[in-house]
Prior knowledge:
With 279 residues, the protein is an alpha+beta fold. It has seven helices and seven strands; from the N terminus they run H-H-E-H-E-E-E-E-H-E-H-E-H-H.
Amino acid sequence: MSQTPTNGVQQGKQPAQAGSKSRSKTSLILLALGAGFLFVVFAALGTWQVYRLQWKLDLIAKVDARVHAAPTPAPASPQWPQISAANDEYRRVTLTGRYLYSKTVAVQATTELGSGSWLLTPLQTDAGELVLVNRGFVSIAPIRLIASTAPDAQTPSSVTGLLRMSETGGGFLRENAAAENRWYSRDVQAIATARGLGAVAPYFVDADRASAQANAASAPDAEKPVGGLTVIAFHNSHLVYALTWYALALMIAAAGFWVVRDERRRARASGEARGQVAA
């Protein structure tokens, strides 16, 4: 009879001791190492995105300055090896020369005016250098548009526009098919090879609207190309990415704080349970 209460008390305390059992030191060390590693990685990724954001904002500012600056002569052949997207793309340039209309290619395009083609035509400068010029957008089918017998211009044309870097490869999910005269990207070297142009500038020029209109009268196109449709837009989600990575780092820190607090609670509960058993 006298042993029954003692057994009842001990049985009643066993769940409390089991529920407040502390984690092992090994598991705590592994949790701390894992949380610390993830926190450092997420924080580093967030900081990297902050640097990328500053780089993107600086790039946008530089491009905006180039687009609105006074036009300068297009780079000549001695400058071609130094041309780069970082330093030259979207510069406003001018050039004068004679259009080789018989070498025109139509590159598939989708613009604010709908689907159609860009007309890329070599322009031979007074120095004899060749620069591809995107004379503008047309909506009619390119096969019906371009005739290889189109006469080359006899008089010079002046062009003002934006310097653009060559688009290597094909368009979205499509590759250029030069043999079939199907073009999906403005690949300067591929076009030059297909048209037998030899050495050309490593860039092309998007003619502005005024240049396209001024030179339309002497062009042999069935539809006059519309210039000045260059879209200048930069995808900039670096701030969102940075906030996401920093949020994940804070979540890891909060989880670590919760584990520490829970471990202390378990330790207190275990100590109280041992005290009650000893009593």
